[in-house]
């Protein structure tokens, strides 16, 4: 584990990217060891499932690091119009397929912004141009929130495994 001095001396971008990567990995890991049925199990009134959370995270990556960077529309990108639809699972959605799509979206996100600085404005956000720094913070906040959801859902699923 790095010392406090090592962390303090890291540039802000390194810090932001480190936390993003940790949350991306944590969300991916929420599917570890689960059956397809468990990954699709709805434990709350909304459409939120563990598999749906990872599928939604793919949408988030595409919106914030593709749409925002390139200014291409969601229709052009072939993604859902809104976040609610991005949780919806089809029969074709599997743990392996959703994970692969998420990993590919994360890789594309890294590549899309590798040449940008934190203060560079991204033209494609619906609110208007936003700096990359804002986008990093927004995605980090969203991933942290969904990691919390995933922790609770996974705990419920795993407790059913041992209870029943």
What does this structure look like?
The chain is mainly alpha-helical and 164 residues long. The chain has a single domain (11-159), classed as Up-down Bundle (Four Helix Bundle (Hemerythrin (Met), subunit A)). Helices cover 64% and strands 2% of the residues. It is built from seven helices and two strands; from the N terminus they run ααααααββα. It has helices at 4-9, 12-29, 36-40, 50-70, 74-77, 95-113, 132-163, and strands at 121-122, 130-131. It has a two-stranded antiparallel ribbon. A hairpin with a 7-residue loop joins β1 and β2 (130-131). The protein is globular. The protein starts with a helix and ends with a helix. The model has no long low-confidence stretch (mean pLDDT 93).
Using the 3D structure, state the CATH architecture: Up-down Bundle
Q: How many E-type strands?
A: 2
CATH topology: Four Helix Bundle (Hemerythrin (Met), subunit A)
Name the structural class. mainly alpha
Taking pLDDT < 50 over at least 5 consecutive residues as the criterion, the unreliable ranges are: none
* Helix count, DSSP H or I runs of 4 or more residues: 7
Major pleated sheet: 2 strands, antiparallel
Overall shape: globular
The overall average pLDDT, rounded, is 93
User: Which strand-content bin applies to the residues?
Assistant: under 5%
Per CATH, the superfamily is dinb family like domain
Radius of gyration of CA atoms, rounded to a whole number? 17 Å
Number of domains: 1
Approximate helicity band: 55-70%
Give helix and strand order, one letter per element, not per position: HHHHHHEEH
Strand order of the largest sheet: 1-2
Task: Measure the end-to-end span.
Answer: 39 Å
CATH class: Mainly Alpha
